[in-house]
Amino acid sequence: MYEPDIQINEELMDMLTLDEKKAWVESSPTKVFDFDPKTEKVVVVDPEAYTYDDEVIKKAEAMGKPGLVDIIAKEDSFIFTVESTGAVKASQLLLNAIKVLNQKLDPVRLSEDTVEADDQFGELGAHMRGG
């Protein structure tokens, strides 16, 4: 899952009553947000818990406040979970998975190198790869 970039529109949020802020926070099934009673502000407490279910966006729209929050998936950063049964440490599982992923990416790297060679050397690049 891509890492979410969550931005609360403070200007719109300040227009909500305390009860509306609390109701909006509660609309998130995974508790991404919290209401700070001291500052009376809504804060992002666990962005990684966001599941792209759009519940908070729908709630904001239902409250007449579209744009209350902007959530964008960072396509260059992702979140994944590694769980172990105990037979192998999670850290070792991760290292093994990275090794397998590297092996599977080798053909892709070779393919990209071939394309670069074609671009750089033209017809000679095709002959270099046996084409």
Q: Any descriptors?
A:
single chain, 131 residues, alpha+beta, Alpha-Beta Plaits, 2 domains, two-stranded antiparallel ribbon, 5 helices, 4 strands, 45% helix, elongated, disordered C terminus
What does this protein look like?
The chain has 131 residues and is of the alpha+beta class. It folds into two domains: 2-78, Alpha-Beta Plaits (2-Layer Sandwich), CATH 3.30.70; 90-128, no CATH class. The chain has helices at residues 10-13, 18-26, 55-62, 90-121, 123-128; strands at 2-8, 33-36, 41-44, 69-78. The longest helix has 32 residues, at 90-121. The radius of gyration is 24 Å and the shape is elongated. The two termini are 39 Å apart. Mean pLDDT is 87; it is low at 124-131.
Identify the overall geometry.
elongated
CATH class of the largest domain: Alpha Beta
Q: Can you summarize the main beta sheet?
A: 2 strands, antiparallel
Widest beta sheet: strand line-up: 1-4
Q: The CATH topology of the largest domain is what?
A: Alpha-Beta Plaits
How many domains? The number is 2
